Amino acid sequence: MQTSTSNAEAERRIQKLTQHLNPLLMSDTNYLYIVSCAARTKLNVDTSSLSSYMRGKYRDIQEKVFNYFNANPHLQTPLEISKDNHRELCMKQLVGLVREAGIRPLRYVLHDPSTYFSLLEAVGSVDMSLGIKMGSNVQGLQTIATFDPITDEFIIDTPNDGAIKWWIGNAAVHGKFATVFARLKLPTYDTKGVSDMGVHAFIVPIRDMKTHEPLPGIEIHDCGHKVGLNGVDNGALRFRSVRIPRDNLLNRFGDVSRDGKYTSNLPSANKQFAATLGELVGGRVGLAYSSVSVLKVAATIATRYSLLRQQFGPPNQPEVSILDYQSQQHKLMPMLASTYAFHFATTNLVEMYSEMKKTHDEELVADVHALSAGLKAYVTSYTAKSLSVCREACGGHGYAAVNRFGSLRNDHDIFQTFEGDNTVLLQQVAGDLLKQYQRKFKGGTFAVTWNYLRESMNTYLSQPNPVTARWEGEDHLRNPKFQLDAFRYRTSRLLQSVAVRLRKHSKSLGSFGAWNRCLNHLLTLAESHIESVILAKFIEAVDSCSDPSSQAALKLVCDLYALDRIWNDIGTYRNVDYVAPNKAKAIHKLSEYLSFQVRNIAGELVDAFDLPDHVTRAPIAMQSEAYSQYTQHVGFE
Ligand SMILES: Cc1cc2nc3c(=O)[nH]c(=O)nc-3n(C[C@H](O)[C@H](O)[C@H](O)COP(=O)(O)OP(=O)(O)OC[C@H]3O[C@@H](n4cnc5c(N)ncnc54)[C@H](O)[C@@H]3O)c2cc1C
After folding, report:
1. Higher model confidence: residue 627 or residue 54?
2. Could you report the per-residue pLDDT of 523-532, keeping only the tens digit for each?
3. Pocket lining: 424 vs ligand 1, CB cutoff 6 Å
4. Which atom of ligand 1 is closest in space to residue 516's alpha carbon?
5. How far apart are the CA of 417 and the centre of ligand 1, in A?
């Protein structure tokens, strides 16, 4: 921290005043005192260093995308646009990006996923529909692909109406090919008839290249007008004995020879399944990462507006900015801190994913699978809620479509559902944790991300220490060890207690019934685990930052993230006396104080997201002359 010790008492007084006095009733002397001290306690943030630490090597390619759309205003999505026009525009945006800007996203999918996801982030900031259109694919686990050795073809079938593939991006209008995940069936020439080789990916042409009509056996219906993302043409697909050449099997993990023999370079069916699964998680990784970029845009708009907008103040004094109100800080500052936390967690996920694509390491595949499910669910739910908070935090102007919250909220909302419903995904995380827990008691090894549970179980399951439960000093509360211990303690308790409950209920209810009886407990466990992972990654990012001013800012933001989360769940900690009443009070006070300190550098923190005005686009968030730009937009001279 850059504030001197002598300032600490002054800061505390400011915080006390801002906490306990309604600014409307504040005396002039107090008010001036607050303003002057606030200026003194402000950290100096070097925005450009912080920004390059955040964006790293992807800055250039993202700028290329932003510049292309800035230079081509006709390709920017207007506020009012019909579904059909939006679909056409979205297609033109994609074609322009590839042909004119020379950006070929698919080139990166296989060999450089990190660059691909950063492109997705930039493109999604321009129009979320475009980001989704670039990443859509088809998955159908009930769909069947049967090999016909006579014609050397696979026959693709949708076995029943329940297996019709709904909501396939690009299918309703523009798509010519689909990547279809289907169960591969091979003839066995015995009484069994066929054997099921598990899920494989196939390229299936769906429309005629010249006439663009659906091909024989392929039925396509338009899913119609949606709540958002109307630039994407979603369709429902049914396959009836569609024949494709044997070569259309994507054979990286398993192949079929001309005489119908199956070969694979992977040693076991488990490894093959893990590798195929690895291919499916890319969508979730992309959604978690893109959701953070939506949160960055929303937090930028809401923070800039809150700094600009002045409302009321002490008698005979200038009005104060609405971000000076404690309530506004409470709405927005922990959210800004979370945006930073999620940035580092999802960047790390992308790196793990890239490594997994290179090595196909089985443990890493399992780790990325569970972590992508958890982060996708946690981050997208948080962003969806935050978009409403940001809208409300900007008052009436937040409701104007031009200020973006409506379209961001509508477009982003489905992130909670596609690539796996969030409630279902969190259950996968809980299931994985339980598996790890069982292994611990059977003496097996723990996968990488869950390693901390191995260390934590013995420590955290013992009774809380009554002495440390009372420690309330700022140094202690801002110590990453205390913060991480607290998060992990909660996860370990939840894990151990749910395991006991599941065992008890499964005797009378069976495993499905027991799972359902403990479902809310399981979801809380999964969220708690994901919060621990996010905090651990944030702490690592603070430690690795070499620029002192950026590091001080990140440390402040990280402390706010950690203490705000602990305070949000303080009941759990109090219930088991992990924190005594005095400590709970100190955590609350400190998190409000940190919100106030973050408020002092909020402008710099959102500037470090490095989103140009032509990307944020909301007139209330312009970096200069925001009010006049807005009044001009409405029509005032
Ligand atoms: C705009 C859009 C685009 C899409 N794009 C694609 C695409 O390109 N490719 C593709 O393959 N798919 C796509 N999808 C499909 C998407 O992946 C599914 O909609 C999603 O997986 C959820 O499945 P569902 O709609 O059947 O919901 P349901 O499973 O019916 O869920 C409905 C509700 O039931 C609850 N629920 C369901 N199961 C459980 C459970 N086990 N425990 C507790 N609660 C449960 C859920 O929490 C949810 O609240 C898209 C969907 C949309 C809307």
Report:
1. 54
2. 999 999 999 9
3. yes
4. 42
5. 5
Tell me how long the chain is: 637
3 state SS of 85: helix
> What Rg, from alpha-carbon coordinates, does the chain have?
27
Query: What is the C-alpha separation between 244 and 152, in angstroms, rounded?
Result: 9
Which residue shows structure tokens 């029943």?
A: 160
- Cβ(311) to ligand 1 under 6 A? no
pLDDT tens digits for range 440-461: 766 666 666 667 776 667 666 6
Domain with CATH 2.40.110.10 in the chain: 144-280
Neighbours of 223 (CB within 10 A): 16
The span from the CA of 281 to the CA of 275, in Å, is 10
CA–CA separation, 339 and 362 (whole Å): 31
Kind and range of the H or E run holding 168: strand 165-168
DSSP per-residue letters across 244-297: EEGGGB--SS-EE-TTS-EE-SSSSHHHHHHHHHHHHTHHHHHHHHHHHHHHHH
Report CA(510)–ligand 1 centroid distance (Å).
26
pLDDT of residue 311: 85
Which is more confidently placed, 260 or 56? 260
**What are the distances in angstroms from CA 74 to CA 68, 92, 145, 151?**
11, 10, 44, 49
Which of 233, 234, 380, 417 best tests ligand 1's pocket when mutated (most atoms within 8 Å of CB)? 417
Q: Which residues, listed in sequence order, are joined to residue 242 by a DSSP beta bridge?
A: 156
Residue 96 assigned ligand-binding role: no
DSSP state letters, 222-253: E----SS-TTS--EEEEESSEEEEGGGB--SS
Alpha-carbon distance 306 to 310, whole Å? 8
CA of 328 to the centre of ligand 1 (A): 35
- The set of residues, in sequence order, having a beta carbon less than 8 Å from that of 559 and lying 6+ positions away, is 477, 478, 483, 594
Report the alpha-carbon distance of residue 29 to residue 494 in Å, rounded: 50
511: exposed, middle or buried (C-beta count within 10 Å: 0-12, 13-18, 19+)? exposed
d(CA 358, CA 110): 9
Strand, helix or coil at 631? Answer: helix
Instruction: State the number of CA atoms in the 13 A half-sphere of 107 facing the CB.
Output: 5
Ligand 1 and 170: CB distance under 6 A: no
**CB neighbour list of residue 67: distance below 8 Å, 6 or more residues apart:** none
Q: What is the CATH number of domain 144-280?
A: 2.40.110.10
pLDDT of residue 31 exceeding 50 = no
Which ligand 1 atom lies nearest to the CA of residue 420? 21
Q: Which residues are catalytic?
A: 419
pLDDT at 271 over 90: no
How far apart are the CA of 140 and the centre of ligand 1, in A?
13
pLDDT reported for residue 38: 46
Q: Which amino acid is at 454?
A: R
Is 138 touching ligand 1 by the criterion CB < 6 Å?
yes
Pocket flag, ligand 1, residue 168 (CB < 6 Å)? yes
For tokens 């990462």, the residue is 289
| pLDDT tens-digit series, residues 79-138 | 999 999 999 999 999 999 999 999 988 788 778 889 999 999 899 988 999 988 878 544
**Mutation probe of ligand 1 site: the residue of 421, 422, 423, 425 with most atoms within 8 A of C-beta:** 421
- Tens of pLDDT, residue by residue over 591-621, are 999 999 999 999 999 999 999 999 999 999 9
The pLDDT value given to residue 29: 41
Instruction: Please give the distance, rounded to the nearest whole angstrom, from the Cα atom of residue 192 to the centre of ligand 1.
Output: 34
